[in-house]
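Researcher: If convenient, please comment on what follows.
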Amino acid sequence: MKKEQQKVRAFYKEFLSWKAESIGQWIGAGFLEVLFGIMMMVPYQEMREDSGFVAMPMLFGSLGAMLYIAPYLTFREEGNSVSIYEKIKYLPVDYRQIQKMRVWYLIRFVAKIFPVLFLLQMATSYWSKALTAANLIYVILLGLVWPILSNLPFAWFGK
């Protein structure tokens, strides 16, 4: 099982390293995550007052993670969108290992961004004298749980 994961990881590393499309998607994901971080600087108490504004960080958090995971699912070849599974299905690995690897990439991406989001929310809440348990729950749900759960079907079921 470990060897299969190493094969999948090596394939993705080699295949995606020379694709300008994937690099562009990752830059886009980074840009969305920066916007997400800026929105997460607003303390929860202020976000709660404007319910329309709460949807914005949810959207950016989800789309950033989706853009990051997209190169692991599809790519463009001769102007057509092609499933990466079409290229990887000939590797001597179980499809579940490919699914697990994509989920791992998703979780790793979100987990790397989360500490920054956490610190931003806690710092601005502390400075505005509004730091409560609600701020902690808010940043965990919106910055960690939501991007993973909203993209889990995309990462797991995408062929």
